[in-house]
Amino acid sequence: MAQQLDLSTLNGFEGMPAGRFMMPMANDERPEHGHRMPIDENHRFRKHLVRLMMFGLMTKQPVSFVGPAGCGKSREIPQFLERINQAYEFVSCHDGLEAADLFGYERVRGGPDGSGVDTVYIDGPVLRAMRTGIPLVLDERDSLAATVALSLNNVLDGLGYTIPETGEHITAQEGFCVIGTSNTNGGGDENGSYNTSNVHSRSTNSRWLVENVDYLTAAEEENLLKSLVPDDRIDEEAIECLVKFATATRESAAAGEMEHPMATRELVQTVQYSMLINSLANAIGPAYFNKLGSADRGIAESHWSLVFGTDEDGS
Ligand SMILES: Nc1ncnc2c1ncn2[C@@H]1O[C@H](COP(=O)(O)OP(=O)(O)OP(=O)(O)O)[C@@H](O)[C@H]1O
Ligand SMILES: [Mg+2]
C-alpha cells in the first residue's frame, strides 16, 4: 500500500506548499521487518537529499550520499524512511566484509527429528531486503573491498541475484532499492582523512546517483543546537559562537591547514555534554579538542580564542 508524504511538514522544507506525495514503494504491510529509527523531531532535512532518496525509492536506481565525517549523511536516511513508515535493512560496510555477509551462506544443521542433517541457505541483508521489498542501506559503502562492491553490480542494475549454491534466482520485490553513504566517491582517499576507503571500479561507481553532502548552514546548525537546549542553560550567543568556531575549523580544513574540522556530530556532542557539566568550555575537550593531533589542536585553539575572546582551550 502506498504511503503519502506531505513534504511541507519536514524541518528544512518550510515555505513549501502543502501537498501530498505518493510514495508507491512504501507500505504498511512490512514495517515489522528490518530496522527502524525513532523519529528525531530536531532532524533538519536537506531538500536535495530527500529528492534523491525519493527518486531512488520510486525508480529503484541506487542513490548515495558522499561527504565529510559527521555532516549528517547516514542519519538523513532512516529519518526520512521513518516519515513514510518504512523499515530498511542496514549494512555497516567495512573492508573485511565478504560477499557471503551481504548475500548469505549455506549452513548445515541437524534434521528436525534429530536424525540426519539438512542444508539450509541463510539469507544475508541484501537478499532479505530484496525478498521483503524494503530499502537496503549500505553505510560507508566505499570501505567495501572492490571485488565485494563489484558483486553488487547486478543488484544495483535491478537484475536480481542467483544464489550459486542453490541456483535460486531472486528478483527484488516492489519496494526494494539501495541507498548508500560514503566519505569518498569510490575513487579512493584523496587527503589521508579516510584511509579505510577503497578504490572501486569505475563501472561500479557509475551505477550510483550521487549527491554531495556538506555541513548544514550556520543558521541551520544554530537552530538545531538551540532546539537541543530545553531551557536557557546555554545562552544563544554562546551557541552562535560555537557554530562560528566550527565554521572556522572547516574553513581551515578547506584551505588545507588542518585535517579534522569540527563536525555537526561534534557540535551536538558539545552541547549535549555541556548541559550535564554546565560548561561549554569544558565540554569542547571530550567532544572535539581531545580528538585532534597536535598541529590541528594548535589551530583549533587559536580559533577558539578568537571566537570566544579567551585563552581557554576547553581541556
Ligand atoms: N540534518 C541533521 N539534523 C539533525 N542532526 C544532525 C543532522 N546532521 C547531522 N546531525 C547530527 O550529527 C550526527 C552525525 O550524523 P551522521 O551520523 O549522519 O553523520 P555522517 O555524515 O554519516 O558521518 P560519518 O561519515 O562519520 O558516518 C547525528 O547523530 C546528529 O546528532
Ligand atoms: Mg555515517
Distance separating the two termini: 54 Å
Domain unit count? 2
How many strands in all?
A: 11
CATH class of the largest domain: Alpha Beta
Q: What would you call the shape?
A: globular
What do the pLDDT scores average to? Answer: 90
CATH architecture of the largest domain: 3-Layer(aba) Sandwich
| Structural class category | alpha/beta
Radius of gyration: 22 Å
Please work out how many helical segments DSSP would assign: 12
Strand ordering within the main sheet: 4-7-10-3-11
The proportion of residues in beta strands is 5-15%
Largest sheet: 5 strands, parallel
Helix content: 25-40%
Task: Give the SSE order as H and E letters.
Answer: EEHEHEHEEHEHHEEEHEHHHHH
* Distinct bound molecules: adenosine-5'-triphosphate, magnesium ion
Briefly note the CATH topology name of the largest domain. Answer: Rossmann fold
**CATH-assigned homologous superfamily of the largest domain:** P-loop containing nucleotide triphosphate hydrolases
Question: Which regions have little confidence, pLDDT < 50, spanning 5+ residues?
Answer: none
